[in-house]
Amino acid sequence: MNLLVILPILIPLAAGALSLLGRHSQRVQGALAVIGGIALVISAVALLLATWEQGHIVSELGSWPAPFGIVLVSDLLAAIMVLLSAVTSAATAFYSLGSISIAHRKAGYFPLMHLLLAGVNGAFLTGDIFNLYVWFEVMLVASFSLLILGGERAQMEGAIKYVTLNLVSSALFLSAVGLLYGLVGTLNMADIAVKLGEVDSGMTTVIAMLFMVAFGIKAAAFPFFFWLPASYHTPQVAVSALFAGLLTKVGVYALFRVFTLIFGMDDPLIHQVLLWGAGLTMVTGVLGAAAQFEFRRILSFHIVSQIGYMMMGLALASVSVLALAGGIFYIIHHIIVKANLFFVSGLVYRLRGSYELKQLGGLYRDKPWLALLFLIPALSLAGMPPLSGFFGKFIVIRGGVEAGAWALVAAALLVGLLTLYSMTKIWAEVFWKAAPENTACAASGSNTLLYATVAGLALITVAIGLGAQPVLVLSQAAAEQLLDPSLYITAVLGEAP
Amino acid sequence: MTRERRIPPPDRNALRTQSLILRTTGFFLLPLLLLFALFLLLRGHNAPGGGFIAGLVASAAIAVHLFAMSEAGARRVLRVDPRDLIAWGLILALAAGVIGLFSGQPFLTAHWLTVSLPVFGELKLGSPLLFDLGVFLVVLGTASTIIINLAEQDT
After folding, report:
1. Largest CB tally within 10 Å, which of A181, A243, A350, A465?
2. What is the C-alpha to C-alpha distance for residues A156 and A135, in angstroms, rounded to an integer?
3. What Å distances lie between residue A101 and A21, A109, A242, CA to CA?
């Protein structure tokens, strides 16, 4: 059991170290990326199955007993997130093989990718709030470097905003952890949850708000989202896809974890802030996207708007279990779909040499299969049945109806419609309209691997849509676990306090 | 006079190597700092010190040498590419953690091996030392990579 929990962190770290040693050989690096990705998927599936059967799996690092040492905890949500990160990493590995140039590989692309994944998985699995901060930093350091790999002017511009805001967020996070430690004298999340219940202090709300702002920045929630559309369209497409799939979701995951385990949703202030945050994030994101005419920028704004749905699930958690389950379902659907849309944008760029909608066109005539591969994630994102996005939205909105949050339900429906508008805009401009004259010719090299990756992820999207019931059962089980923190606390600290 | 001859002559191409004071102190500081780093590394587990701080001190030694002599000189002192140090350090640290897994215990569980030596008495060797050594190499490798690359960009 100890092995299963540590493997998702160990595999990328080991692959990263070996990849750094083998940096002079393209073949070694590529093989390590693929092997690492597949091994990660296998270990994540094993972890999810074990967690499903046994409930929480806890490993006390270094055999230091629970409230004193660092623990790794896998509950269903954590295991689901690890599996999603593994799938995204495997897809990115395949896509990178076909798209990352030699120069970028030499600059250390593959070791950084592995390091990023170690940080992401560590953040999902840790049961210690300071350790969570450390994994966030591991992830951020790797993402800073990946973002500026290649060193183009636009990248630097985006990276400055990205780095600055993320550092601010880290500082807030660290301050919150410090204040929390001052209040309860422990860093173990389960122990904090117990001790915080005994403390009656106005500081609790202050700390909760600090956490919310810190994670809100990482998750790109309103009003802290502007770093995301400013930077995500600048790096290599594989990097964009990895970021789009995983990074903001780590912030969302942290919100889910902290605001179910440590701070209950019974505080009306937290509840209200989350509700408003969710609604405004959805609406501003989608309106931002409507004003954009660059492929990847449109997609970036849509990440923001989709984060709103996940927050909506969390905000309504205290009233409706279904809403929280919907939020988790939404994360599952979103990570796969969003990464895939970025992959498609990369393919379009390779075929036409541009991301600007004005300079694109005619791809439906030339590459009908690519058009189909775009339609699957695009319609799923917009929420068309029977694809995964429909069920995600449907469950979240059902939860909203159950909770009687009518304004939020209306916003969610409207945003769905506007998302469809954005996706039709891309469809009409890139695929449907006639190609403008003097289009650039295709980049050299085979695109087979890229098509295979996109097709694979599209298949997963369809599978989630057609097999929505098992995924919903899983999300619901995860949501019920989250809403009963005593399970987590007992698993970490031993017998019930 | 004999001692002065062993201090390397200035490199005429680089401006910063013109300082005799820096070259002289750098010459003496390099071994001292490296020894101090080793001391910090070994006293680490039970007293203040450890791999991280030892790695920083060692990279300070490399930095002083770089400023006193040249980038190439700093690379020569390290003997291997600093990026290899990062990789090996990471592998050592992970290996130290994995030892515990083999006996069914959690990752990073410490395992000790007591060796009796004729002169020093009992010597306790353990996986935390291996971990510290790994951290030392990672920190030294990372800091040196940054410093040397920045210096080389500059020239």
Report:
1. A243
2. 24
3. 19, 10, 17
DSSP-derived 3-state class of residue B124: strand
Pick the closest to residue B98 from A62, A222, A40 (CA basis).
Answer: A62
What residues of chain A lie within 8 A of the CB of B88, using their CB?
A: 17, 21
CA distance B153 to A230: 28
CB-based burial, A145-180: b 16+ in 10 Å, e otherwise: bbbbbbeeeebeebbeebbebbeebbebbbebbebb
Four-CA torsion A312, A83, A247, A194, nearest 10 degrees: 60
**Mean pLDDT (whole number) for A237-252:** 92
Structure tokens at A164: 């600055």
Contact at CB, B98 and A10, closer than 8 angstroms: yes
Average pLDDT over residues A120-141: 95
For chain A, how long is the longest CA-to-CA vector?
72
Whether residue A191 lies inside any domain: the answer is no
Cis amide bond preceding A386, omega within 30: yes
Please tell me the distance from the alpha carbon of residue A488 to that of residue A484, in angstroms, as a whole number: 8
Tens-place pLDDT, residues B35-88: 999 999 988 777 888 899 999 999 999 999 888 888 888 888 888 999 999 999
Query: In chain B, which residues have their Cβ closer than 8 Å to the Cβ of A13?
Result: 90, 94
**Hey, where are the domains in chain B?**
2-154
Supply the pLDDT for residue A386: 85
Helix (H, G, I), strand (E, B) or coil at A444: coil
Whether A85 is in a domain gets the answer no
* B126–A contact, CB cutoff 8 A: no
Residue A60: inside a domain: no
The strand pair at B121-126 and A71-74 is best described as unpaired
Among all chains, which residue has been given the structure tokens 């419609």?
A: A417
As to burial, measured by CB atoms within 10 angstroms (0-12 exposed, 13-18 middle, 19+ buried), residue A304 is buried
pLDDT at A230: 86
Instruction: Record the pTM.
Output: 0.92
Q: Does residue A346 fall inside a structural domain?
A: yes
Question: DSSP readout, A91-112?
Answer: HHHHHHHHH--HHHHHTTHHHH
- Residue A292's CB: how many other CB atoms inside 10 A? 19
Instruction: Let me know: does A293 contact A358? Beta carbons within 8 Å.
Output: yes
* Inter-chain CB proximity A20 and B87 less than 8 Å: yes
CB contact under 8 A, A20 and B90: yes
Among B52, B90, B91, B127, which would you mutate to test the A interface (most chain A Cβ atoms within 10 Å of its Cβ)? B90
Q: How far is CA B95 from CA A10, B90, B98, B126, in A?
A: 10, 8, 5, 12
Q: CB contact, 8 Å: B18 with chain A? A: no
Residue among B101, B109, B110 whose CB faces A3 most closely: B101
A84 within 8 A of B131, measured Cβ to Cβ: no
Which residues, listed in sequence order, are joined to residue B115 by a DSSP beta bridge?
B123
Domain count, chain A: 1
Does B90 sit within 8 Å of A2, measured CB to CB?
A: no
Residues found in chain A: 497
Using a CB–CB cutoff of 8 Å, tell me whether A401 touches chain B. no
